[in-house]
Fold this protein.
Amino acid sequence: MTQTEIKELEKLKYRLNLILIAFLCSTTLAPCVIFYFRGEGQLKWMLIFIGISYLVSRLPTTFYDRFQISEDVRIYKLLGVDKFKQLSTNGDLINRRIRKKYPTHRNIINFETIKDKLNETYKIEKSHTVLFVFCLLTNIYAVFTNSIGTAVILFIGNILFNYYPNLLQQYNRIRYKRVVNNYSPAVITYDKP
């Protein structure tokens, strides 16, 4: 691929993913901002919840290995994670769309990219866990302030845009580790971020 094609590919990926990210913001972050700045929420609680979420961001990577629901992809498939994968950012539908214009494009092209993707699962899960905790605390607070509409929107948004993405990272990690473990450790190693 030429440099121009690579730039165009990156622009296309950005635009397609931006649509999903806009939904994330409209169902989680926007209701939080409205709740705290125009609704019943008090700014001090928002700052406390941000502080708690920051502490969650400091958890070591080993936490995510212990927190993983299962080492069996079938459990994740029962939860619909494989279906969610189709609709997620950089998911199957977006990749199919990209391959219509760039048929040779692949997210994983060699063992190094598998290692990179495996390490990336921890980073993505960590960021979604931080948002999940903040939105969950805000959700509980919204219920206590009788802001039921905000609570419902946040609950649905938090499940769709934070909890399921975390499950997807766990699911992907199982798949990547399976590939890594089926080859000689001398050939492939991965570093936990």
